[in-house]
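S1.2 Input.
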Amino acid sequence: MSDRNKIILSKYIPEGSVDIIIQWIEEYRFLLKITKSRQSKLGDYTHPYKGKPHKITVNHNLNKYFFLIILVHEIAHLTCYRKYSKNILPHGQEWKSEFNFHMKYFLEMNIFPEELNNYMKLYSVSPSAASCTDVRLLKILKKYDDPSDYIHLEELNENQIFSLRDSRRYIKGKKLRKRFLCTEIGTGKKFLISPVADVIRESLF
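S1.3 Output.
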């Protein structure tokens, strides 16, 4: 990998993790694409087809620690495909083992801040299918985001009006188990939204 690509990569992941990620890019022969922000996903993995190599994409707007976690998540999918092809569950025990194996490199190096490192030791034993569903992990990671006008949905009062990153406006409702039942203004449609979703507090007018 060229020095230019190393410099680019260092903008997105912690400094101490760059050499290991470069080693894996070369060993596993995958294309890493840094994409614009996507509401539907933080990253994904595509297996080789029609002569194209393994490909991993990660959203550009994640902080360095979150970016690294998502990247390891997708690398675990890649190594599972190399070992098992499509003959396993997407986030089954094989994938969890691969995630844990690769994440251990960074945990042993203390790449993450202490609080995050300690939690990742627990999380990596049985990681969730989607990192964005682990509320505690998201709360810790948010501490390392750049300052913004966004707050977590759980910080708003019931019946407060808010907007998401896609600019659609909602009224916050009651919490049902783990998510809040919210009503979209204009359509009246109901949506279950994560308590740690990034929102902007708004007024009716």
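S1.4 Remarks. Residues 64-84 form the longest helix (21 residues).
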